[in-house]
Design a protein that fits this description.
The complex is a heterodimer of chains A (330) and B (281). Chain A has 330 residues and is an alpha+beta fold. Chain A folds into 2 domains: 282 residues, Alpha-Beta Plaits; 39 residues. Chain A is built from 10 helices and 10 strands. In chain A, strand 2 and strand 3 form a beta hairpin. Chain A is globular. The radius of gyration of chain B is 23 Å and the shape is elongated. Chain B is an all-alpha fold. In chain B, strands 1-2-3 form a 3-stranded antiparallel beta sheet. Helices cover 60% and strands 3% of the residues of chain B. Chain B contains 10 helices and 3 strands. In chain B, helix 3 packs across helix 4 and helix 4 packs antiparallel against helix 5. The two termini of chain B are 21 Å apart. Chain B has 2 domains: 178 residues, Fumarate Reductase Cytochrome B subunit; 72 residues, no CATH class. The chains are: A alpha+beta (330), B mainly alpha (281). Chains A and B meet through helix 5 and helix 10 of A and helix 2, helix 4 and helix 5 of B.
Chain lengths: 330, 281
């Protein structure tokens, strides 16, 4: 797709929406996407449009993603250090071509669900959550969220402990052992590689380009745009197809909205969950939300300490003064 | 002034109940923070810590975070309380003084039999230096922890530069806090410091020990006592009779004190104690 084609999309596409927005803002496309890197973006994946590119060997979105990220992971060391004491090594460097699941070399895949004899094709990748636990509790802050909503792992800061994968409800990040900063610290005892996942093509967004998967989709099943516009579009589409939305409430809300004519209970039921192929449970609770009230108390704690100090000092001084007065009277 | 000599019991009050509570609140919450902070690293599964009895939860980062927050609430509140309360009251006994570094070396050399300890105040020079170091580490941990907590709740998209600063200050602070804790334990393990240990549990240390090692402090107490506004400690002493307390030999073989001196000291203190209460003139 060339840049000119970006202006010729269907009425329902993001770029149409963005064209309107951009025209109002005096911008032209696709610069608007770049201009939007500091404001929150969302993506929409319309399952009524995605056909999984069954005519292609590799779906277009997957192929585009692979091409863009083919040189992302540096060469893996010949002898990957054996972690101690648990000897788990995850090496995908000899299976780079795998495209039917998430791997460190494959950030998007098509997950199939069978409903009433019909196949639903679900492009799966990082949801880019609104408050992503994978990023907020990364011990080295290698994983972080950008202002535009993209959740990005800085590969030169990640030790590959896989904590982000543990706390992700969909276990999205994938580890490649034998690369990264841990090799230069204590490779046998600390860290085990680098975690990889979709970063919403954040670098491309900065350059005013669209994410590879969205740009490559031949059926315009994926869109990106300002959050409120995408939310509005998702609601409109869901209403029009009497369908369902996934991603707006899951894990406390995400910036990826799936719109589907079939319910996500049905989709999830027929989806096979395997390593690297997460399910789509409709009721995904943001576990970290349970810690928020206590976290707010922590933020208030210093002020409470200062107030208590002031109050107790006043009481002590008052007592001392009264005592002195009593002694004086005696 | 909370410090007072309880001569009949051969004791001297070193810490108030409030100070003991502050110390233990910081110590216990600090240890919980240390362990739950370690469990925020992905090590519990890798190192089979989850297989240890009672530590099955250690690989659950949310449980660790919950405990970390609970301890951080106490740690931050008490840390700031300590700073402001004692600051407002002008209590500066634990702040480093000029010459503390050189005096610390002299004290440490005396531990290995080189020279004699100089007469000391309530706190040893190295205690004052250690306090300043620990206070700095704790403040770094609290400030960076607050930024991280704020980010967790309100600003997951906080500037990455600021986040990296907060994270690395917190991580380095964690290592320094752990080392400072080890140093604190090592200081307690030194025999000459043993008599001070009971002080942090009961608030009192032995008078003969204090007279021997913290003579400047006792001078201050006695000077305070002899000022017109001072209150006699005789009543307090009789109220706090502890028959189990008896003069103990000072566990400092390097600088033994003649037994007679101790008896004299105690006798002298007891005599002081028998003086009528001071009244305003």
């Amino acid at each position: 797709m060339n840049k000119n084609n970006l202006f010729d999309l269907s009425r329902r596409s993001f770029l149409k929406i963005s064209a309107g927005t951009a025209a109002m803002a005096g911008l032209n496309l696709p610069k608007s996407a770049g201009a939007a890197t500091d404001r929150q973006l969302s993506t929409l994946i319309d399952l009524s449009l995605c056909d999984g590119c069954e005519n292609l060997k590799v779906p277009a979105c997957v192929a585009a993603c692979k091409t863009i990220n083919k040189d992302k992971i540096p060469p893996v060391v010949d002898n990957i250090p054996e972690p101690w004491p648990r000897k788990t090594i995850e090496d995908w460097s000899k299976k780079k071509e795998v495209f039917n699941r998430l791997t460190p070399y494959n950030f998007i895949y098509i997950h199939k669900a069978q409903i009433d004899g019909k196949t639903i094709f679900v492009p799966r990748r990082c949801m880019h959550c609104d408050n992503p636990a994978c990023a907020t509790i990364c011990p080295f802050s290698a994983n972080h969220k950008e202002k535009n909503g993209a959740v990005v792992i800085e590969q030169n800061q990640c030790f590959g402990g896989a904590k982000c994968k543990d706390v992700c409800p969909w276990e999205i990040p994938q580890r490649q052992s034998g690369v990264g900063i841990y090799l230069h610290v204590l490779p046998g005892f600390m860290g085990n590689g680098v975690m990889y996942k979709c970063d919403l093509c954040n670098e491309r967004l900065k350059e005013g380009k669209l994410p590879g998967c969205i740009e490559a989709c031949p059926r315009k099943a994926m869109l990106i745009g300002p959050r409120h516009e995408i939310e509005k579009e998702a609601e409109e589409r869901a209403r029009a197809m009497n369908g369902f939305i996934y991603g707006n409430t899951q894990n406390g809300g995400t910036s990826t909205l799936y719109v589907s004519p079939a319910s996500f209970e049905q989709i999830n039921k027929t989806m096979q969950k395997k390593p690297g192929q997460p399910d789509m449970k409709p009721d995904v609770v943001r576990r970290m939300a349970a810690t928020d009230p206590l976290g707010k108390a922590v933020l208030a704690a210093p002020a409470l300490g200062v107030i208590a100090a002031g109050a107790l000092n006043w009481i002590s001084r008052r007592k001392e003064q009264l005592k002195k007065e009593e002694e004086h009277h005696d | 002034m909370i410090e007072k000599i309880l001569a009949q019991n051969n004791l001297v009050v070193r810490h108030s109940r409030l100070e003991l509570m502050e110390h233990w609140a910081i110590a216990i919450s600090g240890l919980i923070l240390l362990f739950t902070g370690i469990f925020e690293l992905p090590i519990a599964k890798r190192y089979y810590i989850i297989t240890l009895p009672g530590l099955g939860w250690s690989a659950d980062f949310m449980t660790s975070l919950y405990l970390h927050y609970a301890a951080a609430f106490v740690f931050s509140a008490v840390g700031l309380f300590h700073l402001f309360y004692h600051g407002l009251r002008g209590e500066k006994g634990l702040l480093p003084q000029k010459g503390d570094a050189a005096a610390s070396i002299t004290v440490m050399k005396s531990f290995i039999g080189i020279g004699k300890e100089p007469p000391m105040h309530k706190y040893l020079p190295e205690q004052r230096l250690a306090y300043a170091g620990m206070a700095f580490i704790i403040m770094m941990l609290i400030l960076s922890g607050l930024v991280k907590t704020y980010k967790n709740i309100y600003a997951p998209d906080l500037s990455h530069t600021m986040l990296l600063w907060a994270t690395w200050i917190h991580n380095i602070g964690f290592v320094l806090f752990f080392l400072a804790f080890l140093a604190h334990m090592a200081a307690i393990a030194l025999r000459p410091n043993w008599p001070m240990v009971r002080g942090i549990f009961t608030g009192k240390v032995r008078l003969d020990y204090a007279r021997h090692r913290h003579s400047l402090w006792l001078d201050e107490i006695e000077q305070e006592k002899n000022t017109p506004a001072a209150v006699s400690d005789k009543t307090t002493a009789s109220e706090e009779t502890d028959p189990a307390e008896a003069p103990q030999p000072i566990p400092q073989p390097e600088t033994p004190q003649p037994a007679g001196e101790k008896v004299e000291d105690i006798k002298s203190a007891a005599e002081d104690d028998e003086k009528p209460p001071q009244t305003e003139t």
